[in-house]
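Tutorial, part two.
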Amino acid sequence: MEQEIRNADLSDMMCDLLYLLGCGVNEKMPAKAYIKTFQEAYDEDKMQMMYRFSKAHFVEALTGTVLKKAGVKLPAEWEQSIAKAIRKVILFDRERAEIFSYMDEQRIWHMPLKGVILKEFYPSIGMRQMSDNDILFDKDYAKQIRDYMISRGYEVEVFEQGNHDVYEKEPVYNFEMHTSLYGAGHHNEWISYYDRIKDRLRLKGNRSEYRFTDEDFYVYIMTHMFKHFDGSGTGIRSLLDQYVYLNRLEDSLDFPYIDKQCEILGIADFEKENRDLCKKVFRMNDILAEEGTERFRHALTPEESKLLYYYMTSGAYGTTERRVVNSMSQHRKKDGSISKAAYIIKRLFPGKEQYDYCPVLKRHHWLLPFYWVYRAVRMIFSKERRSRTFQELAGMFIQHYKVVPLCINGQMMSE
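Running the prediction step on this input gives:
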């Protein structure tokens, strides 16, 4: 997908973040000269900005750990974030083990996804932060799993809407239980490709837990990465995940097989561009430390700078504005210009893609026009949905002027 970005200049803070991330995942101490310069440049206010920038990309535990090991005094809030990240991983691991034990007893096949696997490729616990745990399981047992999660004290946030059910419990637990990897609103090729997913999985031991092969897991995380990239955007952590996985396994991966699967899924160019970029960015720490940010910037091609800037300005989970910009780019006229009218009509009157998200529509398609009215009324009386509407309007403005805001904690912010 062609991203329309007017300015792809990487700021000094962006380069500092990349340097700290590279040190963390490569298990290297920052250069003493670099830390001296860093401490001179970052007063209390700027340290808070770096913390918020790291937090927007959900990597504050990693950057904070690197700085702390180098002797930099962190704000109390940053110290607490590191401790919370470690505690959260420990709690999730224990809870997930209990859930998997039950699924093993009941012979319900299941498989951990995304960050549950990727966190093991980071140097130490807590460095790879997660807001939830994703688990794929046998959809025939969805109701049984729902009852079990309720028995454990979970609230059912989402059930039988889309391709995953959501369960939450205090103090930190959030489990997304996937009945399929992709569903309504995703690429049809992906839905078809992963339709009989269990056929390509491998049993882990003699239990009911399954895993991808290393190659198939890599292909899956690339589709997941592209899904966010092409939607609301995705932050630098996605590129970091790709790097740590390749850094550990690249020499043993079957790339002819990976290339073929990526071609089938329509992400071959995306995968190769990001494979090159992640290795280039996170293996250039010596350049950043010894020759400064300007040399680092010049080491990237214009296309690489543009792609990296896209990650650096999206935040961990993207932004509403970026989702609008990317969605609008799919509504082009014959002359290549964006049709705002087509986008607005699609947003006001969504079609059958809504069926999987609304159980009533799934059973009674004729109710779709009434659903349009319901959405409009809900927007009028919901402050949160009105806010989202204004964010969409902001996104249309951004698309029109081809500017991309820097995202800090989900808000637009100039540097």
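The longest helix spans residues 76-105. In part three we will examine how such features are distributed along the chain.
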